[in-house]
Amino acid sequence: MEWFIAVLAVAALGVAAMAAAGGMGQMSRDPVHDTFRAALPDHPLTSGDLHSMRFGLALRGYVMAQVDDLLDRLGREIEARDVRIAQLSAPPLPEPVEGPAEALVPLPEPVEGPAEALVPLPEPVEGPAEPPSASPVTQR
Description:
Blueprint: H1 2-20, H2 47-52, E1 57-58, E2 61-62, H3 64-89, H4 101-104
Antiparallel strand pairs: 1-2
């Protein structure tokens, strides 16, 4: 009887070992995500969407991949809004004027004569300049 119980115990341990090693069927090759994951809405995010957002908890806080996904999307949407705001706040472009280019920019009138005649020169000073007279300084 003792031998029967020993053989039965060894057989039970063998079946348990095969089950643990996956010998009695295959485990799923895809990883199992056992944390809560709220789906992001398809429309542009609003403040209400951000207030209602909940993240799954992991061993050390929030699941970083979920927070990273939300931050990446917010970054893209804010960048797109900044570009749109810049486009709308830019000054309007001037309307194109038709005609030859010479008619658009007036040219200055040419000046005749030598260049010396255009800029008047100062009058020359005659004789050496006298140094200021030195007055004695009295100390009291």
